[in-house]
Design goal:
Blueprint: H1 13-30, H2 49-109, H3 115-118, H4 122-126, H5 128-136, H6 147-156, H7 158-167, H8 169-186, H9 204-219, H10 229-246, H11 248-251, H12 255-264, H13 275-289, H14 293-297, H15 304-312, H16 314-335, H17 339-364, H18 367-375, H19 391-425, H20 434-456
Length: 457
């Protein structure tokens, strides 16, 4: 029976490329005390990598889930969305625990700095039982960990937005705009810290406008504007005029610009997605969409292709980037923040992210299946080089043995660490006559030795 499903659309290399760029900027910007922070593109405009990430996430979500809604219906399409929500929820919890472990290791590695306080997660260590409950309930969302809960909430609203679009495509767009206006007017917030009542840094009632703007463009709820010279000029002017008002070292030295920046501050509020941030991102998105075909074709070549591979694996690369950027901050604390040290730490982190993306892309190809196909029907005669192992397998054998012995080494290390405490806790023996001691001394010593040996085994 011939399938009635439409073929899947090929991935948009431009979307993956810009998501990869956003991940790199997030990595550099989130590294504590990073001197490179002042030279990333996000310092020269009203919007930054967070807006790029959320807008493109909305666009990609429409591409990924819109086909399921159209062909499988609202119910089954929603099941796929909620499955992705569960993955993001698990990733958020795992990232928090991983970062908590990194802070503990950092405090032992560099005792002079309290990384737990620096990351502002002391509540988790001081009141762990309640903090775990609040963490799972998403009522405890530290500032460093707020992008994944935001994405989780926005994605959970996708089935509702799609159901509204069935009544009218402009109805879903109007509902998103009304929620945004209501959040500004009524102060709609979600609690992010039970202790002080601090709200989520990224207010989902406001940021959903940016997410569903990208969603609406991808689904056709809103028409994507084509090339218009006047619109290109207007967007370019907005991007250019934003530079002196966005780069703090520049506008802080000029009183008129500093005063204008203060007046525009409510429209640039990041937590509530100020309107100027939204418009600035749309201007950049339009300019990016007008790239000449020659430039777009260049995204197929390295190093642009490497960045696109990062964007393709955005969730695992985001999680790895969170850990690497904080480890990079610790490395800067240890090595200093001189230009050479800063360059070494940043480039090492970027190389690590690119390597992880390349590894994930390789694993997606399932190379073991290719090996199965290559070996199918092959008849071997005689013994291979080393007891049934090929040369590559034999070369990897020492590494595999070390990996297998690692748990045993950890157990041995734990036993050695606990030995003094066990010895100290042993009660003192009852006094005995000297004659009895002479007669049974060897027996007691043998018994003690045997007991210790049994404990170690």
């Amino acid at each position: 029976m011939k399938s009635t499903l439409a073929p899947a659309q090929p991935r948009n290399r431009q979307l993956d490329f810009f998501r990869g760029v956003a991940l790199l900027v997030i990595f550099v910007n989130h590294m504590p005390g990073n001197p490179w922070f002042w030279y990333t593109p996000s310092r020269f405009g009203f919007s930054d990598s967070a807006e790029i990430f959320v807008f493109l996430s909305g666009y990609v979500s429409a591409v990924a889930y819109g086909r399921g809604f159209r062909q499988a219906g609202l119910t089954l399409g929603s099941v796929r969305v909620f499955l992705r929500c569960a993955q993001i929820y698990a990733a958020h919890l795992a990232s928090f625990l991983a970062m908590a472990a990194v802070c503990v290791v950092g405090n032992r590695w560099l005792p002079g700095t309290d990384y737990i306080q620096q990351l502002n997660i002391a509540y988790f260590f001081n009141d762990t039982q309640q903090a775990v409950f609040d963490l799972f309930a998403l009522s405890y969302v530290p500032n460093y960990f707020d992008i994944l809960p935001l994405y989780l909430v926005l994605l959970a609203w996708v089935p509702l937005a799609w159901s509204l679009s069935l009544l009218g495509k402009y109805l879903a767009v109007a509902a998103s705009l009304l929620i945004y206006l209501a959040a500004w007017h009524y102060g709609l917030e979600l609690s992010g810290d039970p202790n002080d009542g601090r709200p989520w840094f990224f207010n989902p009632f406001c940021w959903q406008l940016l997410f569903f703007t990208g969603f609406a463009f991808a689904t056709g709820w809103l028409p994507q504007p084509g090339y218009r010279p006047g619109l290109v000029l207007a967007c370019a002017l907005m991007a250019a005029l934003a530079v002196p008002l966005a780069y703090e070292p520049f506008y802080s030295r000029h009183a008129p610009l500093l005063e204008l920046r203060a007046q525009l501050e409510p429209l640039l509020d990041k937590s509530h997605l100020g309107p100027l941030r939204w418009l600035h991102l749309l201007a950049l998105a339009y300019l990016a969409a007008q790239l000449p075909a020659r430039v777009a074709a260049g995204l197929e070549r390295a190093p642009a292709r490497w960045l696109a591979e990062m964007g393709r694996q955005s969730l695992p690369l985001f999680l790895c980037g969170m850990v690497l950027c904080y480890l990079g901050g610790m490395a800067l604390d240890w090595a200093g923040r001189e230009p050479l040290a800063a360059a070494a730490v940043n480039l090492a982190g970027i190389a690590g992210l690119l390597s992880i993306a390349r590894l994930l892309a390789w694993l997606e190809t399932k190379p073991w299946q290719a090996a199965y196909r290559a070996d199918a029907g092959r008849v071997t005669s005689g013994l291979p080089p080393l007891f049934g192992l090929g040369l590559k397998q034999a070369a990897a054998l020492p590494l595999l043995v070390c990996a297998a012995l690692t748990p045993l080494l950890l157990v041995r290390s734990q036993d050695n660490a606990n030995t003094p405490a066990v010895a100290t806790a042993q009660p003192a023996p009852d006094p005995a006559p000297s004659g009895e001691l002479l007669q049974t001394g060897a027996t007691k010593a043998d018994t003690d030795t045997e007991t210790v040996a049994q404990r170690q085994l």
